[in-house]
């Protein structure tokens, strides 16, 4: 650069480095802008953005006579504008010495002694808070590297973060990340030396950035698409024309797949229908059973999923669809009709003992189908993960603090491949068995979150209200950790309550909590006393006793009739379970947006409910058998070995083995659970002429010996697996 003499090419620091061969000239844009003896005397297309070449030559000659007060070399083209200050310096030297350069009006520059500072009052809170751009901690100190928002009391930023944000957002989108103020925020940041380029945001300048908005959604999303040419096939003016949801337009169905006779009929997707059902604005359509489903051109048009049921029905609610064929029953089960209890422990339907076993197995089958769907969705999300690695150093005794530190480190990215080193705090040794350590880390992390103060409740948990956790942004980190765990092969959490899940998916305004959601015993007892008051005088007496609580909840109101208690109970529940935790919930939602997990939850609520609200299915002989694919060098070995393998799994299930299914999984894959995303690569079994079983964890491959008798096979399995795992534990 002819002004600063440096060869650095760093647009973020020095502006664009431009070379003009015809003039034998190279210059940094910021060096040119901030030089004290030059002005734009030409048009924008003349010289260098209006700076004439002859003026630049004159400025170079002028600066050649001035010595830089920082590096002591000639060519200092920038001077401090403070009266009587004679300091001159190069632009890069000024940055290094923490000078302020104002990219506005006359492009003034201030040296380190005369630079503008932000005012700090004695009442300003000391300590540290989170920079809302990089999410690292920033000290509340009146120093050059820290800037305070002029419009928010508790918003602090790193100067470097703000500069990068400004360069990316441009003058139209750069604003306070907390309150969204633009004018006041930009004015203060310009005064403090943040350069805000007068151009559109970087994301607006991407070529074809909004091309997707021009595309109409063309995909059939019903559970069973009848079109033989696939879900994306669309033939206008026929039964295979795709009709989009009349509310959101982001879901579709073939007319035939939803028994629609013509294009004029309206159709709503399950997500929109659920929202309207919960808000009470959805008018129930006429009930349609399988017998009433119509046929078009000889093809049976199976109905789409039935309208969503109320989240909590009384135990005697009629369920006519249970009388249909088993195939249809399994298809139409919704999360609220699962016979496997959600994590909240609520039973939402009452079945006779004659039907219970049959429907329990159907529900298990339905849950497996939903979990398979989640597995495929998570594999799509995993496509974002790159081969670049991020290493986390973890001590199992301090799992939370170590995980928090790792997730907050500057080089951590959810899209990097995660590797985990477990350290032993007693002797300082480290262990790293690649996938095994990562699986164990996520298992410990999910267990810690389940039992942490961020959640409350016995089994089905809701978010708690922890002000210290809000201050430290821990709810965001918890959501982020769960999202990262799901995509990177962690276990299904399985402890969300139905209410928490619905708040995340449908929005808190569309959710009606129940008494079981209240974890505070005193609050629950107060609600019960109001709910079961059998006279107006008893009700008023109860309200008098808890008037302070009602006033704090904003639920204090005159009660003139006994029936008023129902509305009062609903208001208390909504306040205590939902409104009270608005900040934690929003922060948790933001964390779950990591890697696009929340968006997929909202698109596939039934599927994600199976892993977030239901505990993982207990490992069984059938589960393990389905998990492994058998390969063998000969059909004889495969047939005989498969028989021994199945017999051994039956022994493990019946308790006739010292080995458990978890031990087998751990031996082969390094994980004692089946991740929601499944294993990659998929587990396989090979029968070979070897002495003992071998678990190849990098390949998820179990190599088994070919033996003459089942007893030999069983003994070798138990000896090898038990001893291998015992050595690993030691």
UniProtKB/TrEMBL annotation:
Pfam families: HECT, PHD_G2E3, zf-HC5HC2H
Pathway this chain belongs to: Protein modification; protein ubiquitination
InterPro entries the record matches: EPHD, HECT_dom, Hect_E3_ubiquitin_ligase, PHD-type_Zinc_Finger, PHD_PHF7/G2E3-like, PHF7/G2E3_ePHD, Znf_FYVE_PHD, Znf_PHD
Coiled coil: none
Cellular component annotations (GO), alphabetically ordered: nucleus
Main localization category: nucleus
SMART domains hit by this protein: HECTc, PHD
Region: Disordered, residue numbers: 287-319
Keyword terms, alphabetized: Ligase, Metal-binding, Nucleus, Transferase, Ubl conjugation pathway, Zinc, Zinc-finger
Protein name: G2E3 ligase
Organism, scientific name: Chaetorhynchus papuensis
């Amino acid at each position: 650069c002819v002004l600063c003499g440096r060869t650095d090419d760093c647009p973020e620091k020095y502006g664009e480095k431009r070379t003009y061969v015809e003039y034998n000239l190279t210059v940094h844009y910021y060096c040119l802008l901030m030089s004290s003896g030059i002005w734009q005397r030409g048009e924008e297309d003349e010289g260098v953005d209006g700076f004439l070449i002859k003026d630049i030559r004159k400025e170079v000659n002028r600066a050649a006579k001035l010595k830089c007060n920082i590096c002591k070399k000639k060519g200092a083209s920038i001077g401090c504008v403070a009266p009587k200050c004679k300091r001159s310096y190069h632009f890069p030297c000024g940055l290094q010495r923490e000078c302020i350069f104002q990219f506005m009006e006359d492009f003034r520059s201030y040296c380190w002694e005369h630079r503008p500072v932000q005012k700090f009052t004695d009442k300003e809170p000391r300590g540290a808070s989170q920079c809302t751009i990089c999410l690292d901690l920033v000290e509340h100190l009146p120093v050059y590297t820290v800037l305070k928002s002029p419009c928010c009391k508790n918003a602090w930023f790193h100067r470097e973060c703000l500069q990068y944000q400004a360069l990316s957002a441009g003058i139209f989108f750069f604003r306070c990340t907390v309150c969204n103020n633009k004018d006041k925020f930009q004015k203060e940041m310009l005064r403090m030396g943040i350069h805000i380029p007068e151009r559109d945001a970087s994301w607006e300048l991407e070529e074809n950035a909004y091309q997707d908005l021009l595309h109409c959604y063309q995909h059939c999303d019903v559970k069973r698409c009848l079109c033989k040419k696939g879900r994306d096939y669309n033939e206008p003016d026929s039964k295979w024309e795709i009709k989009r949801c009349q509310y959101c337009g982001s879901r579709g169905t073939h007319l035939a797949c939803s028994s629609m006779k013509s294009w004029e009929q309206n159709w709503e997707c399950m997500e929109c229908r659920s929202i309207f059902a919960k808000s009470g604005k959805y008018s129930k359509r006429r009930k349609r059973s399988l017998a009433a489903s119509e046929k078009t051109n000889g093809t049976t048009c199976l109905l789409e999923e039935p309208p969503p049921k109320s989240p909590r029905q009384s135990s005697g609610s009629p369920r006519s669809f249970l009388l249909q064929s088993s195939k249809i029953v399994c298809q139409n089960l919704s999360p609220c009709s699962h016979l496997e209890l959600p994590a909240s422990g609520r039973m939402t339907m009452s079945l006779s003992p004659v039907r219970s076993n049959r429907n329990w197995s159907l529900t298990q089958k339905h849950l497996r189908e939903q979990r398979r769907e989640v597995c495929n969705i998570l594999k799509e999300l995993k496509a974002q993960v790159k081969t670049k690695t991020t290493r986390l150093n973890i001590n199992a005794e301090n799992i939370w603090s170590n995980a928090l530190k790792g997730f907050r480190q500057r080089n951590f990215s959810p899209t990097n491949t995660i590797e985990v080193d477990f350290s032993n705090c007693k002797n300082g040794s480290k262990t790293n068995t690649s996938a095994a350590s990562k699986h164990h880390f996520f298992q410990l992390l999910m267990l810690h979150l389940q039992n942490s103060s961020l959640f409350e409740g016995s089994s089905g948990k809701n978010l708690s209200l922890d002000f210290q956790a809000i201050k430290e942004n821990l709810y965001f980190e918890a959501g982020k950790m769960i999202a990262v765990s799901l995509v990177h092969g962690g276990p299904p959490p399985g402890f969300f309550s139905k209410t928490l899940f619905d708040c995340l998916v449908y929005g808190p305004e569309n959710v009606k909590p129940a008494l079981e959601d209240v974890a505070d015993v005193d609050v629950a007892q107060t609600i019960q006393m109001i709910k079961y008051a059998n006279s107006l005088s008893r009700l008023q007496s109860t309200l008098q006793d808890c008037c302070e609580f009602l006033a704090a909840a904003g639920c204090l109101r005159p009660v003139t009739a006994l029936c008023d208690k129902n509305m009062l109970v609903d208001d208390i529940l909504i306040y205590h379970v939902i409104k009270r935790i608005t900040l934690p919930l929003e922060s948790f939602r933001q964390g779950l947006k990591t890697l696009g997990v929340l968006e997929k939850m909202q698109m596939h609520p039934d599927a994600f409910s199976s892993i977030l609200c239901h505990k993982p299915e207990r490992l069984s002989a059938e589960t393990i058998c389905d998990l492994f694919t058998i390969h063998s060098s000969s059909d004889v070995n495969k047939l005989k070995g498969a028989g021994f393998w199945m017999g051994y799994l039956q022994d493990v299930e019946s308790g006739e083995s010292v080995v458990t299914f978890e031990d087998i999984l751990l031996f082969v894959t390094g994980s004692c659970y089946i991740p929601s995303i499944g294993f990659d690569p998929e587990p396989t079994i090979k029968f070979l002429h070897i002495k003992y079983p071998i678990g190849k964890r990098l390949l998820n491959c179990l190599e088994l010996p070919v033996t003459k008798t089942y007893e030999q096979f069983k003994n070798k399995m138990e000896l090898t697996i038990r001893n291998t795992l015992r050595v690993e534990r030691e």
